[in-house]
Amino acid sequence: MNEQPVKVKKRIDVLDVFRGFAILGIFVVNIVIMNSTFLNQDEFAKQWTSGIDQISNKILQLFFYTKFFPIFSLLFGLGISMQALKMLEKNKLSFSFFARRMFILFLFGVLHIVFLWSGDVLNLYALLGLLTTLMLKKSNQLILILSVIFLFFPFYDQLFEYLFNLLNFKPEIYLSEYTGETVNQIIKNGTYLEGLQMRLLEYLSNIPMLFGFLAPVAISMFLLGLYLGKNKIYDSLDAFIQKVRIPILIIAILTNAYRVVFLFVLPNYAIYSTRTFRPIFIKLMVFSDIAMGLFYLWGIGWLWYNTKWKFILSPLKYVGRMALTNYLMQSLIGLILFSSIGFKLYETLSPSVALFTAIVVFVFQLILSKVWLNYYRFGPLEWIWRCLTYKELLPIKKNNVSNKT
User: Fold this and answer.
1) Which part of the chain is the DUF418 domain (predicted)?
2) CA of 93: how far to CAs of 3, 4, 88, 224, 241, in Å?
3) Cα–Cα distance between 31 and 46 in angstroms, integer?
4) In 10 A of CB 317, how many CB atoms?
5) For position 3, what pLDDT does the model report?
6) For residue range 342-390, what is the model confidence (pLDDT) as tens digits?
7) For residues 15 and 234, is the Cβ–Cβ distance under 8 A?
8) CA–CA separation, 402 vs 394, rounded Å?
9) Are 269 and 292 in contact (CB under 8 A)?
10) What digits encode the pLDDT tens for the residues 263-303?
11) Do residues 110 and 402 make contact, with C-beta atoms less than 8 angstroms apart?
């Protein structure tokens, strides 16, 4: 099949606003990890005892952790479905197209890990995105049921432990010779090649978290996004937001009540630390955080359609239209801020300074994205991704606008 780019349709600004908001939240979380890796994070965090840093930590826990990855995953699944439906209308839908698109995204992920940062999710998105495309022609009911099953399946830890044992894969060995101090020295004073080697080992050591924790959330949200897309929810998003208002608010109240109890009440009781109940408490917290992320999307949508705050939210769309470029740019900025090739700030930023830095960087990205999109139709990496996907050099400058996307 000759796969040609489909004709441009007017972008839905609020979806780009959602993506821009997700990019902000992702960086707020990622900069904490860039500032101190998982290997030394708990020990590093103990030194920040000032009031403003304690408040910053609570802000991160209450409003950022485990909330933006689900948002971006849902939007990714929605994007797949929207593109597939457009191609289906033109009788151009093919699995090979999406396989090539996901393969190119996978390569972006590999380059991201090797050259910038080990905390990549593009590889995971590419693999799970390919699986999601296999569900395009399945019934909406089946897609929704699978989304729920993937989210609430309780035995991922045991499943992946069994698979790793079967494959004799031992991720704990990759960083066994590293300590918090050696990691600090390599990032701040080591060569770029030493940092590259450590990034690869760090990625391998994080595979259990990647596939045991993030993958189930991602595939569940991909399928939910696919379900919403196949129902063309984007054509009547304002009506849908009003329709789900009551259940969304009830879920938000209940899950936020639990989140407050988990963070501020349960740690004072012995049951919080027991081997039997602690995993259950944590799992409920994860579900509550995901619900909070979905509530964010609902809240932004409600403000967009029902208030005068649209002008405040609207600039987020520029970052959202260049989501891939901005996501990888954040890793480049993190490399410059924290490593030996830049300012060597690794394990020097307090929680409050890290939060402030993330916001400043995001404002810079917002301005840069707005300026770029004044002259170009796509972000630079979005354009490369499109060209490689369609196997065609597509126009990028606005004065060369054609009917291709």
Assistant:
1) 228-391
2) 8, 10, 5, 21, 30
3) 17
4) 24
5) 57
6) 999 999 999 999 999 999 999 999 999 999 999 999 999 999 999 999 9
7) yes
8) 9
9) no
10) 999 999 999 999 889 989 999 999 999 999 999 999 999 99
11) no
* pTM assigned to the model: 0.94
Residue 397's beta-bridge partner residues? 376
**Cα–Cα dist 268/272, whole Å:** 8
* Position 45, amino acid: A
Instruction: Provide CB contacts within 8 A for 369, sequence distance 6+.
Output: 318, 319, 321, 322, 325, 326, 379
- In the block, tokens 């990855």 appear at 69
Residues in the chain: 405
Amino acid found at 207: I
Question: What would the two tokens of residue 384 be?
Answer: 């490369």
Tally of CB atoms within 10 A around 65: 17
Secondary structure, 3-state, the chain = CCCCCCCCCCCCHHHHHHHHHHHHHHHHHHHHHHHCCCCCHHHHHCCCCCHHHHHHHHHHHHHCCCCHHHHHHHHHHHHHHHHHHHHHHCCCCCHHHHHHHHHHHHHHHHHHHHHCCCCCCHHHHHHHHHHHHCCCCCCHHHHHHHHHHHHHCCCHHHHHHHHHHHCCCCHHHCCCCCCHHHHHHHHHHCCHHHHHHHHHHHHHHCHHHHHHHHHHHHHHHHHHHHHHHHCCHHHHHHHHHHHCHHHHHHHHHHHHHHHHHHHHCHHHCHHHHCCCCHHHHHHHHHHHHHHHHHHHHHHHHHHHHHCCCHHHHCCHHHHHHCHHHHHHHHHHHHHHHHCCCCCCCCCCCCHHHHHHHHHHHHHHHHHHHHHHHHHECCCHHHHHHHHHHHCCCCCCEHHHCCCCC
